[in-house]
Write a structure and sequence with these properties.
Layout lengths: L2 H6 L11 H22 L20 H21 L8 E12 H4 L1 E11 L5 E11 L6 E8 L18 E3 L7 E3 L13 H7 L2 E6 H4 L18 H4 L7 H5 L9 H16 L5 E11 L1 H12 L3 E7 L17 H7 L22 H6 L5 E7 L7 H11 L23 E2 L2 E6 L7 H14 L4
Parallel strand pairs: 4-7, 4-8, 8-9, 9-10, 10-12
Antiparallel strand pairs: 1-2, 2-3, 3-7, 5-6, 11-12
Length: 449
């Protein structure tokens, strides 16, 4: 299947699902096309941002918002961007793989838990969760819930955490699958367990690729296998672009949705942990995991605070701004991340019936914290700020303040109330400084100081 066949061929023959070799070849050609989009479509010059008009939040009252506009927006986001979101599986049981009562030099209790899920039809799925809980806390503590990129073993200074079972795609050679190998302690800058314990917060994390592998056939190896048949989960590279464009064959599921589903299942598991207070659960994510955290926070009201760190296009930033990564680039590079129905809008995002400020608004009256970085043009910091600002209107319906500022703040100056924002000096990352702001905000929200 060449790229020409994927885009231009007429549907005058029976559909043949390509084998792995053909699917990989198609992906490689699409990757080459995506590279040209990065060169030709990518804009980092604010003066070249086209004029646009954001869809209005039309409600005037809380009742209008909750009974009419919010349900319709949620339906649209599911249909166009993130796909269907199944609920809990029929069964869940927890397997304690390991427990260490003097973890992090005596600061924490550490648990490694395998979450097992089952359906009445016999389907099974599982993934591993790592939990750190402050030792000797006077009672159940709030918990940060998030996905990591490199495996649970890579985000802790302890050397005895089991390796992830994630398989990743080797983008540098022939696209074949290989085991993830990230040394223990290789990504300590992304997670802040020691400081979290000192501040009195539990942290629960799982490797995003165990929940849903981030590769061609990721959905076929995800938690969504509990609910959907293989045909519904097939790779977008198994479906010619012409079929998707004409609406004949579309996948109304997404990898972002699968990751978000996994975050909710982690809360299900934590509800049985007596040392954790899930009424004070917070969802957090960086980059693509930030997109998933936003969507999980919208779909699951158990998350009291939603933290989006550098989530960019398809996350907190406005889709109508042609700055940094655009919907067209996102779609062609990572089509599995989004619903197949997004294809109707990638060439003209102004046709979307919504924009991401309305996604942020869907979290009201709970709290949302959006964070950007000065050197992260790809995630469009200004677009993230404007999104948080425009979405803040809905909090007024609840007598609360959102992001009550008129202009983008200077770097390293958090602003806002129920909607909060900061622009950190630096690159695309989640740093100790970011975490410090999140701890401070949670302290304020939960009255811990």
């Amino acid at each position: 299947m060449t790229i020409a066949a994927g885009i231009e061929a007429e549907d005058n023959r029976d559909r043949v699902v390509p084998d792995e070799e053909t699917a990989i070849a198609a992906f490689q050609q699409v990757a080459a096309y995506t590279e040209t989009l990065w060169i030709n479509d990518y804009n980092s010059d604010e003066s070249k941002v086209r004029q646009y008009t954001l869809p209005e939040i039309k409600s005037k009252t809380r009742e209008e918002w909750e009974n009419s506009e919010r349900p319709e927006l949620l339906r649209q986001f599911k249909h166009i961007l993130y796909g269907d979101m199944p609920g809990k599986p029929d069964e869940m049981h927890l397997e304690l793989l390991a427990q260490k009562d003097d973890a992090l030099d005596g600061l924490a209790v550490r648990k490694e838990i395998r979450l097992h899920f089952g359906m009445k039809n016999g389907r099974r799925f599982n993934f591993d969760m790592l939990v750190y809980i402050p030792k000797n806390a006077p009672g159940p503590v709030p918990v940060f819930v998030g996905l990591n990129f490199s495996g649970n073993q890579a985000n802790t200074p302890e050397t005895d955490v089991r390796m992830t079972r994630l398989m990743v795609q080797d983008f540098g050679t022939d696209m074949r699958m290989k085991p993830l190998w990230r040394p223990r302690g290789a990504k300590l800058e992304s997670w802040n367990y020691v400081e979290a314990m000192k501040r009195g917060y539990a942290v629960a994390t799982a490797c995003y690729g165990e929940v849903c592998p981030d590769h061609l056939n990721g959905l076929k190896n995800s938690g969504f296998t509990l609910f959907y048949d293989e045909k519904e989960l097939r790779s977008e590279y198994e479906i010619p672009f012409c079929e998707q464009k004409r609406g004949r064959t579309r996948r109304n599921l997404s990898v972002i949705g699968a990751w978000a589903w996994g975050l909710s299942r982690m809360v299900d598991a934590l509800e049985s942990e007596p040392l954790v207070d899930t009424s004070k659960a917070m969802v957090i994510g960086h980059s693509r995991n930030g997109k998933a955290a936003l969507w999980a926070g919208i779909c699951d009201p158990r998350f009291a605070i939603v933290f989006s760190n550098n989530s960019g296009c398809g996350g907190a930033s406005l889709s109508r701004r042609n700055f940094g990564e655009t919907l067209r680039i996102l779609y062609w590079e990572k089509r599995s991340w989004v619903s197949g129905n997004l294809v109707d809008y990638i060439d003209d995002p102004t046709r979307l019936p919504f924009d991401q400020h309305q996604l942020i608004a869907l979290a009201a009256p709970r709290r949302v914290y959006v964070a950007s970085a000065t050197l992260d043009n790809t995630a469009d910091p200004k677009g993230e700020f404007l999104s948080a600002q425009a979405g803040s209107k809905v909090w007024e319906f609840y007598g609360k303040k959102g992001l009550d500022v008129d202009r983008m703040p200077p770097p390293d100056t958090p602003v806002g109330d129920h909607v909060r924002y900061h622009l950190r000096t630096g690159k695309h990352a989640i740093t100790a400084w970011d975490w410090a702001q999140y701890y401070d905000y949670a302290d304020r929200v939960f009255g811990r100081r």
